[in-house]
Amino acid sequence: MDLMGDLKALGLLVRWDLTRMWRRRMFIAMRVIWFTVQVSVFGLALSAMVRFRGVVAHSIDYYHFYLFGVYTSMLFSISVSNAYEVAEEFEEGIIEYHLSLPIKRSILSTGRALGGGIAAFIFTLPMYAIVLTLLGWGSPLALFASLIAALIFSVGVVGLVLSIVLSVKSGDATDILFGIIDAIIIRLSTIFYPAVVLAKIAPYYYAALANPISHFVDLLRTLFFFEEYKILAVTDPLLMGCYLLGFAAGLVSTAIYIVERKLEGGGWR
Amino acid sequence: MAAVKIVNFVKRFGEVTAVNNLNLEIYEGEIFGLLGPNGSGKSTTLLTIATVYKPTSGDIYVFEHSVSREGDTVRKFVGIAFQEPKAMWVDTPYELLLWHAMIVGYTSHEAKNVVKETMERLNLWEHRKKQFYQLSGGTRKKLEIAKVMIQRPRLAIFDEPTAQVDVITKHALWDVVREMRDNGSTVIVATNDMFEAEKICERIAIMYRGELRTLGSVKELKDQVPGGDVVEVSFEGDREEAKDALLKLDGIGRYMLGNDKIVAYLNKGEERAAEIVSALMSAGIKVKRIMVQEPTLDDVFFYFTGARLGEG
Ligand SMILES: Nc1ncnc2c1ncn2[C@@H]1O[C@H](COP(=O)(O)OP(=O)(O)OP(=O)(O)O)[C@@H](O)[C@H]1O
Ligand SMILES: [Mg+2]
Known about the structure:
Number of domains of chain B: 2
Number of helices of chain B: 11
Radius of gyration of chain B: 24 Å
Strand content of chain A: under 5%
Structural class of chain A: mainly alpha
Number of helices of chain A: 13
Largest sheet of chain B: 6 strands, mixed
Distance between the termini of chain B: 37 Å
Number of domains of chain A: 1
Structural class of chain B: alpha/beta
Oligomer: heterodimer
Shape of chain B: elongated
Order of helices and strands of chain A: HHHHHHHHHHHHH
Number of strands of chain A: 0
Helix content of chain B: 25-40%
CATH superfamily of the largest domain in chain B: P-loop containing nucleotide triphosphate hydrolases
Largest sheet of chain A: none
CATH class of the largest domain in chain B: Alpha Beta
Bound molecules: adenosine-5'-triphosphate, magnesium ion
CATH topology of the largest domain in chain B: Rossmann fold
Strand order of the largest sheet of chain B: 6-7-8-3-9-10
Number of strands of chain B: 14
């Protein structure tokens, strides 16, 4: 129907999330500082100690591995932290305000998923820049593809966040669920250990294989250090890309379904 | 065409039935008042019209579109000022209203103009750069109303717009409501304030415990209160004869008898004044003065809600 109107509404919803993220810039700044400390001090110390000798034939610099892992965990955490924001919005009645606006519900949910994803993506860009400065910027294609992948990944995570928070409609449940998701899901991935290492523990291994985080982080690694990671990664880059796309599309669709069909104001506990 | 048609509308929140089988029609172009004591289901009804809540059963049609099945269409027509001001923590009042103006359809240039104009009109301009916690209750309320003024929807909903607002602002807001109606909007106002209802509403519905108690113009509702009008007659002559003459008439409820004055409670006092005068005259009583007082809307409200509080 009114395509221009829909696009404009999408843009404004993204802007809403960017404004909100901007208000939390101190929180973000703290994260960036913590990140810098992590990658410079711990990272170097760790990589001096850990080598994957014996696991794979050729030696791999754990620092490469680790840096992408830390960046991914940051992007994931900041995307997930949207959950607390959305919960707060519910308590303040902002969700009800948005539900009353003269826009389509599908646009509302897509806009918020995009907005939250883009905001998380933009605010982790400084961290990504630090990572690439330490590791080298790769080819323009690798850089471009990695940025797109990061955006898709964070939009997918925010889609997940919206679907869950708007379904459980409870501040306590949100705190608990996302505390768990942030802590456990990251560990059940290849963020800090490569798939080949995990292969020794079956449930762990399969969880990591199915985990979109593994696909994202291994995609980044493969994009920049293909020769090192082609054997280590969960699967080949094209499949990882498709998996990410499917993940994001699936969760944004779920969020749309919930907002269109299920969501109503009130009832927040 | 009805602006809003509410059909067998039920809304439950778990065990609580907030609205129980409501049927109501709101005409296009009127200012409609929704009255009722706290917790009677006014906000629940308004929020469902605005598609924020979903009906448990029954349906509501806004300009003939169902809120259950055509929410996206319904929302194009509706603007609502919530009872509790919303969405204020994210940004300053000016930025919020600007965002609101754009999402309801203005270009960014138009938005700047209409926001400034509206904020100035409601004396909000000086507060434009404040943070939410710095704003008084009334100012927050005005911001909420400003959203609807900016939007100029075909169906404008105000949920207790003048609660927390000072007298001067109240009058200004009533002007705003009338103006919106004159410019083509249908307006629904929920209120606990009888004076407000009487001042601006053409028709009124009174809800009580989720049910519709009565519906009509202010005049009609007053006439429904039995013995509601107060007729006060000052006379010269025998008081007992005056009393007998009066009690021969139909529909006289309670009365009070003085030496040269009789006060009677009855319906439609205005219309029956002449009848009373001629009855007294033919009984040889000289009528010096007759005064008819309508019941206040407070009386109406008590009759339809408060009067029953003791029963339930
Ligand atoms: N989101 C909700 N969850 C649970 N119960 C609710 C919810 N909203 C309203 N109720 C209940 O439904 C009933 C009607 O509430 P509603 O807010 O519609 O009344 P109201 O007429 O607007 O009252 P007031 O004059 O106090 O604003 C009340 O008993 C209230 O407690
Ligand atoms: Mg209310």
